[in-house]
Amino acid sequence: MRGLVPPLPASLPLPLPNDSLKALYRQQRCLLYLLAPQQPAFAAIASRFHMLQLPKRLRFMVAYYFCFYFLHICNDNIHYAKIMRDMEVEEPSSSTIKLQVPTMADFPISPVAQSSQSITSPYKFVSSFTNFQLHSIAPTRSKLFLAGTTIPRSRRAKKYLSVKNVASDQSHELKDAISHQEANALEDFVPDSSSIALSIKYHAEFTPSFSPEKFKLPKAYVATAESIRDSLIINWNATYEYHEKMNVKQAYYLSMEFLQGRALLNAIGNLELTGAYAEALKKLGYSLEDVAKQEPDAALGNGGLGRLASCFLDSLATLNYPAWGYGLRYRYGLFKQLITKDGQEEVAENWLEMGNPWEIVRNDVSYSVKFYGQVNTNTDGTKEWVGGEEVTAVAYDVPIPGYRTKTTVNLRLWSTKLSPRDFDLHAFNVGDHAKAYAAMKSAEKICYVLYPGDESQEGKTLRLKQQYTLCSASLQDIIARFERRSDGGEEKEEGPVNWEEFPEKVVVQMNDTHPTLCIPELIRILVDVKGLTWKQAWNVTRRTVAYTNHTVLPEALEKWSLDLVQELLPRHVEIIKQIDEELIHIIIEKYGAADVDLLHEKLKEMRILDNIELPGSVLDLLMNSKEQVVSSALTIESSEEEVKKTNQQEEDGEAEEIEQGENELKLFIPDPTQPKLVRMANLCVAGGFSVNGVAEIHSEIVQNEVFNGFYKLWPEKFQNKTNGVTPRRWIRFCNSDLSSIITKWIGTEDWVLDTEKLMELRKFADNEDLQREWRESKRRNKVKVAAFLKEKTGYTVSPDAMFDVQVKRIHEYKRQLLNILGIVYRYKKMKEMMEISSPEEVRSKFVPRVCIFGGKAFATYVQAKRIVKFITDVGSTINRDPDIGDLLKVVFVPDYNVSVAEVLVPGSELSQHISTAGMEASGTSNMKFAMNGCILIGTLDGANVEIRQEVGEDNFFLFGAQAHEIAGLRQERAEGKFVPDPRFEEAKAYVRSGVFGTYNYDELMGSLEGNEGYGRADYFLVGKDFPSYIECQEQVDLAYRDQKRWTKMSILNTAGSFKFSSDRTIHQYARDIWQIEPLHLP
User: Fold this and answer.
1) Which residue intervals are annotated with compositional bias (Acidic residues) in the record (predicted)?
2) For labeling, which of 564, 607, 625, 766 is most exposed (least CB within 10 Å)?
3) Are the C-beta atoms of residues 829 and 884 closer than 8 Å to each other?
4) From CA 1010, how far away is CA 1003, in angstroms rounded?
């Protein structure tokens, strides 16, 4: 070491740490930035110091000293001057503070990576998210300390340090002379634009994902993201380590979807660094907006299910709750939607094509996931799942920062691959490449696509593999963390784990039925791997797992073929059968066995296994019950003849009872013509300790209709948790213009964390100044929307028209068909009026509108794709009609996602949430629109009910049948009693006239006709609600003409949206279901 480092000079000018230098230190590899080009050996040594578990204030000074010491000893005066200039510090003056330092030889670190020199210390650095440990130098052995006074906190400090070699002075004892004020100055430091620009330049050069020649926008984005990630990692690691240390109960949120959206603006917004990054990028020649646009949306979700999960993670971090998210890392997402003359076309998402700077692969965190095989019973009665196919699930971690807090929670995504030992090298070398690749592709394709088409058996198998991979890998990881924390996190001989404590430290929330296999998988691990008894494992599981129901649609209440589950997961079928058997006994205990018809009805409703024979124990119970009824002792015997007569009657009665019993038991015989199914929702309810709906009306339907039998059995399990959205992304960041106005009038920005403060806007709703500012803000946002639509679709729209928006997954129950038929009717009436009236009269009748649609139809959902085609055909016709001009435009935005929503929502004025009543669980887009001052038109469905209550009935456009009427209306239709409104028939006839092109819409229009049959009879009641919808739209026009009234309605929608923050929802989950407490980092 002494040979590598020149002697230290008597005095080395060293600038006092200013904010820029402090920021440089905060970057993970700041030393490499300074040193790697000229002195890679020194850089390697210095980077070792960066990992040491020294006190932060001392670690900073070590790193700081080495930076400039190395530059000096390398005689790199040019680079030294450049750094001084970049840091905006002046040349050293005579004013100095002495820093006493050792020689390099006094630090027990070898410069050679391969050195076997050991460094012993009682302290250990524990790498986050892994079990990796690195021994470090003990602080008590260091000879480095400051001799001086308080360091000023000014950003432009002009004092300097003088470095002296005092290694030979043995009289100095180790001490830490930096005051608490100085330490806090370092730890609480906020980076400025100069240090951020320096960090971005470092990442562009030394963490390269692009060629070095040019600094173009894509490279600028990745470098910016990596510099932000550096800041996140500091808080991320601190959060993890503190949670490990405190060992509190933690929530784990399992979801097949996490619809994150872009991360860059959200991250710097939560870190409160938006202005600094904007200024830094401006120095580098780019705008923050242009750089942010380079980020693709993470293709990890599709609709409200995934967006809700992402809002929850944001709130969990912001509110400092100990929690993680678990999902899958889909390489190609759902699909990228293209709109062509044929309607929707699907191509693979390319969001990972240029890499993902937000994720960190944890190659040391992986778990084996098994499929197929067989179950063996050992001599001791234990079960062993052997053989089959195995894949490896590897963890990819994404930091989720909270707002105005250090807490940064983790989203762990699993990606699947084949272990190298399972690659068939022999087949490859002999030329049978297809065979060699088969197992590898089978493993990798599990995480290729979100919701692969399940029309084929292969598609069904792949979906089930996805669900099990999520459950198995996540639970193995959760259990490993629990065991490590149970041992105190130390590397010591493994002791017994108290599994009764598992539910006191872990709660697993299943986001819909996709993670249902958590229940049998947790039991399998506890029984087969950890050695618990069935009773113990079942008790632990029922206290650990909770279930959120998101829909009442039959196809969403998943039912899997028993044969498929048996083939793919044979051990889990055994466990599910045992759970089903226990559930049957509980049902019999509740309802008894005397009334066989009632019992049959309850079992048909509540069993987990559908169309499966009853377990032997249940059949024995039923037969014994019948025998007890038949055998009754004779209490009086009057004569031998009477006894004989009584015996004969008894025998005849017994035979009759037996025959009747046999007939009754036939009710439970499976129907061989029907499939055998595993009902996942019933398994969720039976195996979990909590079941919640996501809106008040939805929870009522769950309790009174969908799971009524379970509700009567376990009423304490059921509760409501109305959804919410994060106000950070969905108003504070995406609508900064309106946010500033809200802050101005409320007098504080605290509403971002306490949305109840939005209610204060109500007292200003009639204020003319607020209304003027509100309208001006809305118009600026509409101008942005108009520019966006021009860029994405080529259509030019007027920002002076009303912007009417329906953006959500394309589905018949969401009734985009009702919306577009209403537009067709409006267009027809415009055309008819133009033939007899002046343009002014037409304009006085109809408010100009831009009708905006967006959303994806699943690739195999034919009817939904017909609706997309229909919307685009109508738009193509209307938008090119010169008579109509700006009076009506219809635009379908392709590839709708979070980033598109962040543009459309702030500029929307009317938002349509018009699902058939009782079919939408909650909705979350309705909350986003209301929060941004957009007025809703909708039915009393999902969260619409509660939104209308909070914003006021006069500020919500209501139409349509109510949930309790739907069943009767369908029955009326089936009986042929429904009489369609003439306006509805007029709209359908206009479509069939060919005015919108040559496409044959008979199938689409035919679904609205007839009284019965699959795909017929207007199941979603478009025709029934059409006249009410048209009349409600007339009320919308009337209100919009009175801009003062409309603006007041808009303000009151924002004020009333306070309830629909995901912060409120998460507080309720934490208190009522998870029973966890906030954990603030020190």
Assistant:
1) 649-660
2) 766
3) no
4) 12
**Cα three-residue angle 545-549-553, rounded to 5 degrees:** 145
- List CB contacts of 497: < 8 A, sequence separation 6 or more: 482, 483, 486, 530
In a 3-state reduction of DSSP, which class is residue 368? strand
Condensed to tens digits (0 to 9), the pLDDT of residues 42-70 reads 444 444 444 444 454 455 555 555 555 54
Question: Is 560 strand, coil or helix?
Answer: strand
Which pLDDT value is given to residue 287? 96
Q: What is the pLDDT of residues 960-1013, one digit of tens each?
A: 999 999 999 999 999 999 999 999 999 999 999 999 999 999 999 999 999 887
The separation between CA 896 and the C-alpha centre of its own chain, rounded to angstroms, equals 17
Residues 993 and 1005: their CA atoms lie apart, in Å, by: 12
Which residue do the tokens 């009682």 mark?
122
Distance CA 899, CA 321 (A): 27
b/e sequence 509-522, b meaning 16+ C-beta within 10 Å: bbbbbbbbbbbbbb
- pLDDT digits over 87-139, tens only? 444 444 444 333 344 444 443 333 333 333 333 333 333 333 333 333 333 33
Look-up of token digits 């738009």: 875
Would you say 83 and 38 are in contact if contact means Cβ atoms under 8 Å apart?
A: no
Hey, is 691 helix, strand or coil?
strand
Instruction: Say if residues 561 and 461 touch (Cβ distance below 8 Å).
Output: no
User: For tokens 């079990």, what's the residue?
Assistant: 131
Whole-number Å distance between alpha carbons of 685 and 711: 9
If you search the block for the tokens 């019993």, which residue do you land on?
661
Distance from C-alpha of 27 to C-alpha of 22, rounded to nearest angstrom: 9
For residue 1027, what are the CA distances in angstroms to 316, 489, 821, 986, 992? 44, 66, 11, 12, 20
Q: Are the C-beta atoms of 65 and 14 separated by less than 8 Å? A: yes
| CA nearest to 555, candidates 516, 527, 513 | 513
CB 409 within 8 A of CB 250: no
Q: In this structure, which amino acid lies at residue 946?
A: E
429 close to 435: Cβ distance less than 8 angstroms: no
**Residues that are catalytic:** 550, 808-809, 814, 924, 928
The CA distance from 705 to 688, in Å, is 19
Q: Cβ distance 850 to 803 under 8 Å?
A: yes
- Give the DSSP H/E element, type plus range, for residue 362: strand 360-371
**Burial code of 1035-1063, b = ≥16 C-beta within 10 A, e = fewer?**
ebeebbeeeeebbbbbbbbbbbbbbbbbb
C-alpha distances in Å from residue 639, one per residue of 79, 644, 646, 650? 123, 8, 10, 16
Q: In Å, what is the CA distance from 929 to each residue of 267, 329, 806?
A: 22, 29, 10
626: which 2 tokens?
A: 């019948």
At 937 the three-state DSSP class reads strand
pTM metric for this prediction: 0.84
Contacts of 641 (CB under 8 A, 6+ apart): none
Show the tokens assigned to 960. Answer: 């349509």
The stretch 269-283 carries a mean pLDDT of: 95
CB 669 within 8 A of CB 613: yes
Strands (E) located in 955-1082 = 957-958
Q: Are strands 802-807 and 910-913 parallel, antiparallel or unpaired?
A: parallel
Residue 639 CB contacts under 8 Å (≥ 6 apart), including other chains: none
Strand 323-328 to 145-146 pairing: unpaired
Concatenated DSSP letters of 241-271 = HHHHHHT--EEEEE-S------SHHHHHHHT
pLDDT > 80? residue 83: no
Between CA 55 and CA 187 the distance in angstroms is 11
Q: How many CB atoms lie within 10 A of CB 331?
A: 19
Here the tokens at position 553 are 């649609």
How far apart CA 688 and CA 719 sit, in angstroms, is 13
